[in-house]
C-alpha cells in the first residue's frame, strides 16, 4: 500500500509540474491577472445645487371701459408654491358713522311693534325683528325665528317677496337651511334706511310674500310703515 501511494504521489506531482509548464507556455497567469476587475472608485460626495431663483412678476389685467375711470385697485403679492398671485386688498370699512340705539330706545320700538302686531290680528303669521348692526350695515344678513320658519316657510331655498306700503316689491333670497334672508336683503335695508334699533314687523300674507312694517327707533312708527 505504501509503494502504491508513493507511486501515485510521484505521478500526481509529475502532472502538476507538466500543467505548470503548459500554463507558463500559454501565459495563462498574465491573462488571469488582466481579467481581474478593479474595484470602482469611491464616488465623490454630491455637490449642493444652488436654489433656483424664480423671478416674481405681477401682471396687470386690462380693465374694461366700464371701470376705466375708477381708481386702480390695490394688490399685494401672495406667493403660493413659487407662483405669485396678486390679491386685492379690501379697504377697511369706516364704522365711525354707525349709530347705535340705546337699550331704552330699542325696547320702546319693540313695544310699539308688538302693539302693531296685535292690531294686525291673527289672520296671518307674524314675527318681529329688532334690527342690529349686522342686519343693516356690513354683513346684511337677517336671521329669522327658527320656529316661524319651520311652521310657515318652505323647507327649500327660494325667493321671498317683501312688499312696502307703496306696493313696491323686493325679491330676497331665503336660505331654508340657515333660516334667514341673504341676497337682496341689503337692497331692501338700504332703500328703506333701516337703522340699529328699528323694529320690523313681518306679516306673511302668502306662502312666500311678506308685508313689512317698520317702527323707527327714533319714535316714528306706522306713518313710515312699509
Structural overview:
The chain has 226 residues and is α+β, with helices and mostly antiparallel strands. The longest helix is centred in the first third of the chain and has 25 residues, at 2-26. Mean pLDDT is 77; it is low at 78-92 and 221-226. It is 30% helix and 22% strand. It has a 7-stranded mixed sheet, with helices on both faces. It has a domain at 103-224: DNA-binding pseudobarrel domain (At1g16640 B3 domain, Beta Barrel). Keywords: DNA-binding, Nucleus, Transcription, Transcription regulation. It is found in: Nucleus. Its main location: nucleus. Residues 127-218 form the TF-B3 domain. GO terms for molecular function: DNA binding.
Terminus-to-terminus distance: 137 Å
The number of helical segments is 6
Share of residues in helices:
25-40%
The topology string of helices and strands comes to HHEEHEHEHEEEHEE
Oligomer: single chain
**In what order do the strands lie side by side in the largest sheet?**
3-8-9-5-6-7-4
Determine the structural class based on helices, strands and strand pairing. alpha+beta
- Gross geometry: rod-shaped
- CATH architecture grouping of the domain at 103-224: Beta Barrel
CATH class of the domain at 103-224: Mainly Beta
Global Rg: 46 Å
CATH topology of the domain at 103-224: At1g16640 B3 domain
Largest sheet: 7 strands, mixed
Uncertain regions spanning at least 5 consecutive residues: 78-92, 221-226
Give the total of beta strands: 9
Task: Indicate the proportion of strand residues.
Answer: 15-25%
For CATH, the homologous superfamily of the domain at 103-224 is named as DNA-binding pseudobarrel domain
Mean model confidence by pLDDT:
77
GO molecular function: DNA binding
Region (Disordered): 1-20
InterPro entries: B3_DNA-bd, DNA-bd_pseudobarrel_sf, REM16-like
Protein name: TF-B3 domain-containing protein
